[in-house]
Amino acid sequence: MDARYKSREIERRSLDVDGLKRSFLEWLVYSVGKDARAATRRDWFHTVALAVRDRVVDRWMDTTRSYYHEDAKRVYYLSLEFLIGRLLTNSLSNLGIINECRQALDRLGLSMDDVADSEPDAALGNGGLGRLAACFLDSMASQGLPGYGYGIRYEFGLFEQRFEHGWQVEYPEQWLQFGNPWEFARPEVLYPVQFYGRVEEFRDSVGERAYRWVDADRVLAMAYDTPVVGYGGDTINTLRLWSARATRDFNFGHFNDGAYMKAVEQKILSENLSRVLYPNDATETGKELRFKQEYFFTSASLQDILRRYLQHHTSFDNLPNKAAIQLNDTHPAIGIAELMRLLVDQHALRWDAAWEITRATFAYTNHTLLPEALEAWPVRMVERVLPRHMQIIYEINAKFLNRSKARGTGDNAKLSRLSLIDERGDRRVRMGNLAFLGSHKVNGVSALHTDLMKQTVFADFHEEFPDRINNKTNGITPRRWLKQANPALSELITSRIGEGWISDLEQIGALKEKADDLVFREEFRRAKRKNKKRLAAYIARQTGDEVQVDSIFDVQVKRMHEYKRQLLNVLHTVALYNEMRDNPTVSWVPVTKIFAGKAAPSYHMAKLIIKLINDVAKVVNHDPSVHDNLKVVYLPNYNVTAAEIIIPAADISEQISTAGMEASGTGNMKLALNGALTIGTLDGANVEIREHVGPDNIFIFGMTADEVNDLRASGGFNPREVIASNPSLKRALDMISTGVFSPDDRNRYHPILQALTDGGDHFLVTADFADYCRAQDAAMELYRDSEEWTRKAILNTASMGWFSSDRTVNEYAKEIWDVHPVKPVHEGEGFR
Ligand code: F55
Predict the structure, then answer these.
(1) Which of 128, 498, 504, 692 is the most exposed place for a label (fewest CB within 10 A)?
(2) Which of 152, 368, 372, 453 has the most ligand 1 atoms within 8 A of CB, as the residue to mutate?
């Protein structure tokens, strides 16, 4: 090879400061097309990202090649959402070259933080479900597991939230506007996906009944690959996202002008499939485009998976030994019917063989028990959009129900509950039932949630298939949520116990013995204080609010939903405000209530609660009689990037959902890991967090899931009685209903008052109020004793090792997927 090329090749891989700096200048000039004087911060971000990408590519190809050569069993994580956030610091940190990069930029007179801040936040998800998928990608790569993410490359991610007069307003989130330096377009990886049309029956070569799907519309799915850098940079996995492309076959000879333009318009419209992420985090709204998105990416992913499998195999018998497909909720569950179609119609397998292969290949994760979130598509729509799939679903259903009857499930009510079709009202396909039946394993995301699945939504299925449901308590990646987001605490931890915790979070348990060490406590407090200053500056920039670093940072950050009970928190805020005004001579512990989170654009109640928080903030923050002892802040546009600043600065973590309604929660884990004390109900993974941190180091309040269940079964309660008997609650509600916070529109909050009274208070806000205030008081009291507080905070951080998503992913790998780590062979090793 020509020596000049050779040296350039070495340069591209060089990981030292000089090499990085030379690469940056080369990329800036030759690819971004700017010189150093003209370059903007964004230019520098693109420059640095492209140079970092160079350091990834060889190892990425080595990883992919190793999987191929070993014909390793792969796991395919199918998810309509991947809430990735920014990648620059993440990639540098996992490659171990963050300091080198910082120095190289220093030498160019640039600040690494400014460059990193120019990266848009990839928000291809709504909340917990999408972020879990992103944490799993990091953990699979960090464990050396052959894992692929499959999803949609939305042109518009989750909307940008702004406040106008305190109301949420949505703006399009154009993350791709200036290009995406991390992705590789793969125009040659292109699969057809069909919609509509009809089904023809015919006789196959051996005279058996067979079906073909004809006269369908076609869209193409084009792949974009993003490398997923594992910790240490050894394994680099792939996230493959599909983008919709119109086909060019017009299929109908010649036509007049009008027909031609119409045909072209249709083609253009087909690209809307990957245009925008649906912004609902709970309700399935029944939109045809959403259903088509689900099928679009699922079909493309399955075609890709089968193509990869067929490179090594001629029969499908071994598919379950070579591919595990995990369904992230029911959103990709149509994949069960699609795999059946591909195997039976396209590859001529017998039904029973295809079904056995399908079931052995798929597994399904449930993320919610809320009835309004369980997907059920109208039969009339499914048969129009995917006629062959509707037939296949009927066939699966008929065989299943017949077998159940034959096995003695005589009870018709039970059979109709087990059916894939909900026959009540307009007939609907129950995607949860399809996912359950078509999977060999079905899991919940916390111990409590998994138990409740067995007792409620899947009780009948659990009776039929007692070994199918299992628990996989969620986790979070310590790389992003401690190492990157909280460098102050990370460096302190590493200085005492070494850096093993980064890839083996259980090692953080070694900090437990430091909880009694006064010097360590002081340093722990110093790290928290540094993070609080960083957040205070961010708050000032975002909202103009001034907050006191010495106040308790009481944080509730998550999607807005009635079941998450931000309302309970606001009511406590108003009660605390009243107490402070009533008792001005008491030396109050100053409190800053910090909220952030988006509401689904059509969720009026959630948007009204946002407005209430902003209205309360306006009154409280400008009332001199509370002497700055209480501030209320609502940070706009909560996303992964904002979370990385907010979470490390929290003293209190609010995890206050109505018991039984939050499947797991993962923000609860991030906050506790960063040394916040939880105020929470016994819901989701809070139960397991209490077991790990110990009941003395968490503030638990409120009704349990069983108590909630019993209360509902016994016909509910009378919230008016509860309100009448609690003067502080009554006063807070009266203030809201009489317009103290909305003098410009005194009736504004009537829907909220209505829901809490005549509405029966479905989420038990009033029922849990008194005990919540007790927990809040206990926390405020403890905060006065800064040594005790710090001791408990340290014990929280030190006890969260089990909640690493590395643990979660390893459990999936062993108990569901049967996949094993592969050690990549790095051919370019000599260059390191
Ligand atoms: C998105 C779209 C639809 Cl149609 C339905 C739900 C969602 C969604 O975003 N769900 C979601 O985030 N669920 C959450 O999943 C987390 C990860 O398992 C859990 O921790 C959390 O409890 C659950 O609400």
Answers:
(1) 498
(2) 368
Angle 696-658-556 from CA coordinates, rounded to 5°:
70
Per-residue pLDDT reduced to its tens digit, 475-485: 999 999 999 99
Tokens linked to 653: 């973590």
**Residue 671 belongs to what H/E stretch?**
helix 667-673
State yes or no: pLDDT of 830 exceeds 60.
no
DSSP 366-403: -----GGGS-EEEHHHHHHH-HHHHHHHHHHHHHHHHH
* Contact assessment for residue 361 and residue 339, using Cβ atoms and an 8 Å cutoff: yes
Q: Tell me how far the alpha carbon of residue 335 lies from the centroid of ligand 1, in angstroms.
A: 20
Measured in Å, residue 23 CA sits from the centre of ligand 1 at: 41
- The string of DSSP codes covering 15-71 is -SHHHHHHHHHHHIIIII---TTT--HHHHHHHHHHHHHHHHHHHHHHHHHHHHHHT
Q: So what's the pLDDT on residue 263? A: 81
Q: Cβ(280) to ligand 1 under 6 A?
A: yes
Q: Which two tokens stand for residue 721?
A: 């009685």
Q: Which of 284, 327, 367 to mutate to test the pocket of ligand 1 (most atoms within 8 A of CB)?
A: 367
The reply to whether ligand 1 has any atom less than 6 angstroms from the CB of 294 is no
Residue 472 beta carbon below 6 angstroms from any ligand 1 atom:
no
For ligand 1, atom 13: residue with the closest CA: 129
Token couple for 714: 């016994």
pLDDT at residue 253, as a whole number: 58
Helix (H/G/I), strand (E/B), else coil: 300: helix
Backbone phi, psi, residue 477, to 5° = -85, 125
The domains located in the chain, with CATH, are 71-86+121-472 (3.40.50.2000), 550-801 (3.40.50.2000)
Q: Look at 290-304, 406-420, 421-435, 741-755 and tell me which has the smallest mean pLDDT.
A: 406-420
Q: Using pLDDT thresholds of 50, 70 and 90, give the confidence band for residue 6.
A: low
- Model pLDDT, residue 259: 79
Contact 366 CB / ligand 1 (< 6 Å)? no
Does the C-beta of 367 come closer than 6 Å to ligand 1?
A: yes
What whole-number distance in Å separates Cα of residue 118 and Cα of residue 111?
11
Q: How many residues does the chain have?
A: 832
| 364 CA from centroid of ligand 1 (Å) | 14
State in Å: Cα 276 to ligand 1 middle: 18
CA distance 748 to 495: 53
Residue 828, burial from CB neighbour count under 10 angstroms (0-12, 13-18, 19+): middle
Ligand 1 binding pocket includes 74 (Cβ within 6 Å): no
Query: Which value does ipTM take for this structure?
Result: 0.99
Q: Kindly state if the Cβ of 666 falls inside 6 Å of ligand 1.
A: yes
Annotated catalytic residues are 367, 558-559, 564, 666, 670
Looking at per-residue confidence, does 268 or 629 come out higher?
629
Q: Is the dihedral of CA 349, 340, 428, 267 positive or negative?
A: negative
